[in-house]
Amino acid sequence: MTLVRAAGLAAVLLLAACGRTPVLGPTAGGDARIELAQVPFYPQSAYQCGPAALATVLGPAGVVVDPEQLVSAVYLPEKKGSLQVELVAAARRYGRVPYPVNPDLTGLLDTLRAGHPVLVLQNLGIAHWPLWHFAVVIGFDARRDEFILRSGTTKREVTSARRFMDTWKLAGNWGLLVLPPGELPPAADRERYLRAVTDMEGVAPPQALREAFAAALARWPDDPWALVGLGNAHYGAGDARAAEAVFRDLLARDPTHLVARNNLAQLLGERGCRAAALELLDAGLAQLASAAREREQLAATRAEILAAATVPEPGDCPRVVAAGGIE
Q1: For residue 150, which of 136, 240, 247, 269 is within the disulfide window of CB 3.0 to 4.6 Å?
Q2: How many Cα atoms sit within 13 Å of 221 on the Cβ side?
Q3: 278 located within any domain
């Protein structure tokens, strides 16, 4: 009797295991299958999965780089590995936009459907004994309920969707999409994208910033954050007149926008339009209460313009009009 009952229990457990609901299922489109076979493969040597995984996603974004070239930038010998922040910073230096994917199955699948591999962090151990590992998801097979990865020394690692999602969840569902400037992610979140691009300032080449902010404005034409970013990017690229045009446009749309006012005044002061610059700043200061923290920046820009050497004003200086705007 005992043997029969044990066998019966084993059969029940087996049926339960075989009958588990697929992870992908309808979310992935039933029989859908995607594999980004063109994604490059770099065998990952001991402790260096970070450089190899980053090189893997940089390739489709237009940057061909050997993992060895990335080791000094992202590999931390004392930790025998890499941190997410190092990979993100390195992507920025190459002028690419590191965009965090939505930390769920839908976000991962949408990114793959759009043709982008996803750099992910996995915990191949357990919560209290982690074994961190970077890999790149390049596809999925909904019918077989599997994911396909570039991982370690395996070019095409096929793993059950449940196993992958467990290891991904243990690592906080962190995933990164690396985009060429000028290309938006699928179902782009405005704030997340603009934050990703803004964080590139001072690191990425100015032209990459111009293309990234221009792409944002093509999607969100009236966004003041994107306009400020584009103006600053023009200035960083040495195109002060283009920057001035952007800040004029933004100030015309919103005369209360103090960043646009400050930056436009600075540009006008740099090209010798001292009177117009000071009038813009004075109008801005008049808008603010005496305790407003923005006064400090406007006052500093005003003092900088006053301290600059006086030169003859060019003939194309703008004229300040009512409400502190210019024409």
Answers
A1: 136
A2: 0
A3: yes
